[in-house]
Specification:
Elements (H helix, E strand, L loop, with lengths): L1 H10 L3 H20 L4 H30 L6 H7 L8 H26 L1
Helix pairs in contact: 2-3, 3-5
């Protein structure tokens, strides 16, 4: 698996976009967890999560196109052994979960302030 991924990275430099985007998002979320949360930084975190959606959706389309134009004789073989179609959708899924995690502490603080 690693060898195949490495070979595709050499043939197609767009594969590196997902690697850079995931490292960027992970670093933003790690800082949001470690340090006290400032509202301006949380806005940057949400913008980073939006960029994850922007990376994941075209990735889904590229994987789908790669399977339709794959090297195998039929589409079923390309779907089974080709590029995993739903793998790029992990980016939007995790971005939505991270955005909920960023938003939730803020909303609970607002409700606590209203109750007092």
């Amino acid at each position: 698996m690693f060898r195949t991924e490495s070979a595709s990275r050499q043939r197609n430099p767009t594969v590196r976009i997902s690697l850079a985007a995931s490292a960027f998002a992970a670093s933003f979320l790690l800082i949001a967890v470690i340090h006290p949360q400032k509202i301006w930084f949380l806005k940057w975190c949400v913008a980073t999560m939006v960029s994850q959606v922007i990376v994941g959706l075209p990735g889904f389309a590229l994987h789908l196109i790669a399977n339709f134009t794959g090297p195998a004789a039929n589409l079923i073989t390309n779907l089974i052994y080709g590029a995993p179609i739903f793998a790029p959708l992990l980016f939007p899924n995790l971005a939505i979960l991270a955005a909920i995690g960023i938003w939730e502490p803020q909303s609970s603080r607002r409700f606590e302030a209203m109750a007092v």
